[in-house]
């Protein structure tokens, strides 16, 4: 049996510490959310129960938990759909090296390095100075797109750089129109990547704080509501909320991954059936 070097154990220990650093806070919050009715915000735990999860579904004295959740969910869907559509359109457009494409590319990517709070401040000022309402569905929506669109475009650029154009040429040779080629050839091939862009768009929007801070208006999204609760809630109900929102995030990721798996399995089955039909 090959003897492992000391470097292997050092790297293994570093990886374990990294996982603890990454998931330790989430695990801690999850454990503390199961405190008994007399439990506090720190260890040691005072009993074990589901009391604080039940309390979440009671009328809260402060905040608007479920209203903020609905707003974050709706905003996440809006950002997700827009990110997917614009990213695909941008990826198709950048396949043609049009005049100014390089400058436009760097302008898009620049928004990733601008401090998020400055983006939020700038978008909020533009809306307020223009006489428009600062609202989560308008200014908040726009500020979040400055965060999600660059990621979506980068993914689409990578996808189309590796895309085999012979599929499109074959479709055109068969008489397909440009729209039919995109709909029946391009989109089915890049569908798993579109799922990835959609996942990026939704999750980045769902937990975005800084770019929504000054653009949400009078109604908080869920991250803003949770932040507000940290200043006036002194019970483990906030941990229960954190546990449920984390579980919801993992559920969303699982749904997207299962969708990709189902699409790949269906494609493999169709390829197998086509191969058997040719025999």
Automatic annotation (TrEMBL):
Entries under InterPro entries matching the protein: Bact_Polyamine_Transport, MetI-like, MetI-like_sf
Range of residues in the leader sequence: none
Name of a matching Pfam family: BPD_transp_1
Keyword set, alphabetical order: Cell membrane, Membrane, Transmembrane, Transmembrane helix, Transport
Organism: Rhodovulum marinum
Transmembrane segments annotated in the record for this chain: 7-34, 73-94, 103-127, 147-164, 185-206, 237-262
PROSITE patterns reported in the protein's UniProt record: ABC_TM1
Coiled-coil annotated spans: none
Compartments reported by the entry: Cell membrane
Gene Ontology biological process terms from the UniProt entry: transmembrane transport
Name of the protein described by the UniProt record: Putative spermidine/putrescine transport system permease protein
One Gene Ontology term, aspect cellular component: plasma membrane
Keyword match Glycoprotein: no
Protein family: Belongs to the binding-protein-dependent transport system permease family. CysTW subfamily.
SUPFAM superfamilies in alphabetical order: MetI-like (SSF161098)
Membrane topology category: Multi-pass membrane protein
Start and end residues of each ABC transmembrane type-1 domain: 69-262
């Amino acid at each position: 049996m090959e003897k492992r070097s000391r470097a292997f154990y050092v790297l293994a220990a570093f990886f374990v510490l990294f996982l603890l650093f990454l998931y330790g806070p989430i695990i801690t919050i999850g454990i503390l959310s199961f405190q008994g009715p007399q439990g506090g915000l720190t260890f040691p735990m005072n009993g074990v129960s589901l009391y604080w999860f039940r309390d979440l579904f009671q009328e809260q004295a402060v905040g608007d938990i479920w209203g903020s959740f609905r707003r974050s969910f709706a905003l996440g869907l809006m950002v997700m759909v827009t990110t997917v559509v614009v990213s695909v359109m941008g990826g198709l457009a950048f396949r043609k090296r049009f005049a100014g494409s390089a400058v436009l590319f760097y302008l898009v990517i620049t928004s990733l390095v601008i401090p998020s709070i400055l983006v939020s401040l700038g978008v909020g000022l533009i809306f307020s100075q223009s006489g428009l309402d600062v609202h989560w569905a308008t200014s908040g929506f726009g500020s979040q797109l400055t965060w999600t669109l660059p990621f979506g475009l980068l993914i689409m650029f990578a996808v189309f750089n590796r895309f085999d154009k012979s599929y499109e040429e074959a479709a055109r040779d068969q008489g397909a129109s440009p729209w039919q080629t995109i709909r029946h050839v391009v989109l089915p091939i890049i569908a798993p990547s579109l799922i990835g862009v959609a996942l990026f768009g939704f999750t980045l929007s769902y937990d975005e704080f800084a770019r929504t801070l000054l653009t949400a208006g009078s109604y908080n999204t869920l991250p803003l509501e949770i932040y507000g609760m940290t200043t006036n809630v002194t019970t483990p109900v906030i941990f229960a909320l954190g546990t449920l929102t984390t579980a919801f995030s993992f559920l969303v990721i699982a749904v997207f991954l299962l969708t990709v798996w189902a699409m790949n399995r269906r494609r493999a089955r169709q390829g197998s059936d086509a191969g058997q039909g040719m025999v």
